[in-house]
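Extended Data, record 4-alpha-glucanotransferase
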Amino acid sequence: MDTTVTLPEIVPASYVDAHETVQELDPETRSDVMSIIADQGDPIPPVVCAPGRPSSELDGELWTLDGHRVGDAHGIGPEVGYYRLVQPSGGRRLVISAPERFGQPERGWGWAVQLYAARSRDSWGIGDFGDLALVARAAAHAGASSVLISPVHAAAPVPAQQASPYSPASRQWLQLLHIAIDDVPGASEVDLSDLAVRGKALNAERRIYRDSVWELKLAALERVWGATKDRLPVEHDVFVAEGGEDLRRFALWSALAERFGTAHWRGWPERFRTPQGAEAFAVENADRVAFFAWAQWVADVQFAAACQAGATIVADVAVGFDSSSADAWMHQEMVSFDYEVGCPPDRHNLDGQKWGLPSINPAALIASDFAPFIGMVRSALRHARALRIDHVMQLWRLYWVPLGGHPAGGVYVHYPTEALLAILRLEASRVGAWVVGEDMGTVAAGVRETMAEYGMLGYRAALRLPVDQFPEAVMGASSTHDQATVAGTLTGSDNDDLRRIGKAANFEQLEGVRRELAAAAGVDLDQPIGRAEIEQAVVAQYTRLSQCRARVVLASLDDAGGVAERPNMPGTVTEWPNWCLSLPMPVEDLLAEPLAVRVAEVLDARRD
């Protein structure tokens, strides 16, 4: 969105779908969306430039955002940073001066980990940051350069825990369920033995019961807080000070959600539905607000330790936040709650998808100087040194589906791409991070070319695209968290699961993928398929990936464990145990299993 972009361009009348067919959009829905965007007025878009490069828009005085005059702008980009341009006419514009390209990783490999599933023998029913440190160390020891993890965004502190890491309460703060209780500062000063016994007992079942985990971890955190809150270290005070108003409001929202037993803040008493209206509650419940801020510090300390333990941690950034989230509560003037983000039908999801995430108004985002986006990126890169942007199209356009409507009835809304990409480049450059954009599904023309221009890696999955067609500038994997595993594909159990729950799919195409995988592995599909055949297929699949051109190749811990079930079945709610299945054994044992060792050896050969 720049000075020449009009509303009809922001919400175009048609789009080209995954089958290269032009789809006309519903005119009534399109008109309604354009009205929503227009209600925000006509915010002035930022100036995007590069240090030392000419920019005709840089005419006027440059100021830092905290009010210090830099000097006159002379059509040349200033050093990396954010500025305010005061134009001769008196107008003011945000200036984003960013490097022209992202940093690049070396050719290598890594593990893809659903952190909640990667339980160790010390876990309390769910994978935690201590387990992540274990995986990062083991990965580095085996020669891996990176570990991609599922999002560790915050969830609401309520009895009914959100299972999906892609529907967070906040993309700026951390998931408290991932705290390793034994490693909490001060934990050794209190007796947690009764809770630890119950927590570790949850590992006996493969199913992850987040509600039970939260009950136990909350009780443990409360005991430690009670024993240590009067003598917290200076590091805690620094963290809280740096978190500022964003942390205070998130902690306040957390205390409110806990008090009312639900994250659905639009159903709270009216005076608490805005941050301003809840100030009296913050004063009256200062200890509980401080508790949740402290818990975020604990999570931050542990995540930092995991990120420094071995291989580079690649943080995964969700496409949005839940409608009943702290982010929606804090930024509700930017959100349209009558629409949710999703995607239109494509060849892999014939019904399309709705993700239950409210839509963000691009005009409101510009008017805020991109504050929520900058905060999210900075948080993601606070300790991690690489990012994966889930559904990278969020930087270009998002598909708005009317609440309660069918995915086919949505409209595409375009976002200020150049500014969002510049913010990513700027923030990544400050910490030396590299960035991957998940660019599968319906991708608009020119997106991949722009990614290549700026040095953002793409993402490819071998069960969707033959590995010999992978370009070099991508992160390559066998599949994603939404797709079949090697075991599920080879045995045909994934197809059986799809049929059993009544999910539409191109079964002829899926059977072709299965037969191709079997042929590559030398497996006879007319004979019984057991563990040996699955391991044979896993090794064959990752041998192919090791030899492909992709800059970075990932092996899934699910494949290394011979897991048949998908982590998530898109388009389902209760039909599938989405995000609730752990790995079949403690992660330290799985990584030492012959199959995992063999996969690591195969992939490590690509460093030679």
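Summary. The two ends are 45 Å apart (CA to CA).
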